[in-house]
Amino acid sequence: MMMRIPLYLVIAQWALLGALGILVIVLFRQLGRLLNGTAKAAELGPVTGSRAAALSYVRPGEQAPHQLRPGGGQPLLLAFVDPTCPSCEQLVLTLDQLRAAGELAGTDVLLLISDPVSYLQISDAFSGTGLEIGRPADPAGLEYYRVTATPLLVAVDAAGTVTAAGSAIRSAEVRRYVQACLGTMQAPAAAEAVAMTGEGAA
User: Fold this and answer.
1) What is the residue range of 165's domain?
2) What are 153's strand-pairing partners?
3) Which candidate in 82, 137, 164, 192 could, as Cys together with 180 as Cys, close a disulfide (CB 3.0–4.6 Å)?
4) Is residue 171 part of a domain?
5) Does the CA dihedral 53-74-111-194 come out positive or negative?
């Protein structure tokens, strides 16, 4: 004589299996995001301690390229940003605020964009900035800087050595990159800076 399993037990069993399946999928996706985020942080920007590479760029409204040669005795903060990136707009506003407050401490700041120059007009942060803007004209130089996502900050000291590279948008975080340019404090880790922003790179 065959024993019949109550219907509610069958339903409960399938419900439990479904819940376990959903849980496995969620955990798998979270693990994938974590591993992907770690890989991006590790691949973003040049290697700290390396010699910053020269780079040619063109300013908006000009034709002749300018040569960026880090290591001329002036600290340098490179910001790879784009007008179509919301986090980049926030970074540009932060840099303008620090400049107006005199907190850049003599550090040169250059905004480098990959978007077409005409896109600058779609963002008040970019069209109204008092910082120098350029569009890289040297693909080989960009390979060194490893701009796999924006925003990317690269701090270079007066001797031309990369002291920090990563992502940041808040004032306290950006100040750490300025201080890294000046060599007045330990350089921020790229992965830590990315985690502190809580923002996804565009």
Assistant:
1) 44-197
2) 79, 166
3) 164
4) yes
5) positive
Q: Is the peptide bond before 151 cis (omega within 30 degrees of 0)?
A: yes
User: pLDDT digit string (tens) for 122-153?
Assistant: 999 999 999 999 999 987 778 899 998 899 99
For 198, other C-beta atoms within 10 Å of its C-beta total 8
If 0-12 CB within 10 Å is exposed, 13-18 middle and 19+ buried, where does residue 13 land?
Answer: exposed
**108 vs 181: CA distance, rounded Å:** 10
Q: What is the rounded distance in angstroms from the CA atom of residue 95 to the CA atom of residue 133?
A: 13
In a domain? residue 28: no
pTM, full prediction: 0.71
Distance of CA 164 to the CA centre of its chain: 12
Q: Is the dihedral of CA 107, 113, 117, 121 positive or negative?
A: negative
E runs forming strands in the chain: 55-58, 66-68, 76-80, 108-112, 132-136, 152-156, 162-166
